[in-house]
Amino acid sequence: MGEITRDLLYRLPKTDLHCHLDGSMRLRTILDLAEQYKIRLPAEHEDDLRRLIVMKDGCSSLVDYLRVFDVTLLVLQTDEALERAAFELAEDAAAENVRYLEVRFSPILHTNSLLPFEKIYESVIAGLTRAEKRYRIKTGLLICAMRNFPAEQSHMARRIHDRFYTFSDAELAQLLAVHTAKVTTKLSQKYPTIVGFDIAGPEDGYPAKDFYEAFQEIINGHLSITVHAGEAYGPDSIEQAVKYCHAHRIGHGTRLIEAKDPSRLRTLYRYFKDKRIPLEICVTSNVQTGSVPSIEAHPLKVYLEDKLRCTICTDNRLVSDTTVTDEYFRICQAFKLSKEDLYKLIIYGFESTFLPYEEREAILREVEPILQRELQVGSGAAGAIPRT
Ligand SMILES: [Zn+2]
């Protein structure tokens, strides 16, 4: 059996289920939009801007990593800019044979020009839909609430802070999360592209359980749920995401490994395995935020040996300077994965989408024979994978 080359990984049909719109723009587009809207960026030349935004050598923490988004958000404040960014992201993903892409973004961060809230959603959906018509890619949209919401972050935040001056940052974030959840639920009845809800931002000090009310709205709206957890905080954060937010998937879950305890019969780790709850794994980003010291030190290898359901994702194509192909290539090299391992991982991705069941099945039926042929694995490999 031949080796796993970058070329092979590029050709294979893939998914990306954890990809932030504002962290995955093209550098050239940021400069174009800044010129178009006369926005002053902290760096004017492409190379300087790249040095500022792209995390080549990592940063000291998740909070540091998140600061970069202040720059990309400067130019993502109009319907036209949002449509373009969404289209280009799906175009870039389609170019490396991503067949299904779930894009996520937080509408509240795009309110600086007082763009109507619903229009913000619709602009991103329009960009994704345009890409779907042109390329062989299917897309879904995840709406993020934010765990914290400093007044300087957006115009809406400033107005709300002014009006509700007795509220703390945390209380306002919770209030805005409920508002975002209500709009998401309502618009999801009209736009099938909206498939789920998430919560993003700093984990430490902003527990998921504080957003219980927002997630209740989403549960009542019968939408899917993923939660950023276990990236910058331990298993408690993941436990809350499951217990209070009813997460169907977990964003990162890097520190779930700390809940592994073979001496105990019932653990959170075991629960994830038994319930087949997918972990959206972003190894490059995890190294850059200091979640793990190196790719080799990432618990992914243990997760795979223990048959946890993992799916490989980019997190932020621009900020992390990565693609889905790159992520697969890095883990195949670091963990010396076999073609069967790779087959299972890619299938896990297609099984873990938030698409309606019939559509999930249809894509699986389409990609399975391609993967079996390209990876020279028999259909028996698929038989080893529990289906949901
Ligand atoms: Zn993320």
From TrEMBL:
SUPFAM superfamilies: Metallo-dependent hydrolases (SSF51556). Its EC number is 3.5.4.4. GO terms for cellular component: cytosol; external side of plasma membrane. Pfam families: A_deaminase (PF00962). Keywords: Hydrolase, Metal-binding, Zinc. InterPro entries: A_deaminase_dom (IPR001365), Ado/ade_deaminase (IPR006330), Metal_Hydrolase (IPR032466). Belongs to the metallo-dependent hydrolases superfamily. Adenosine and AMP deaminases family. This is adenosine deaminase.
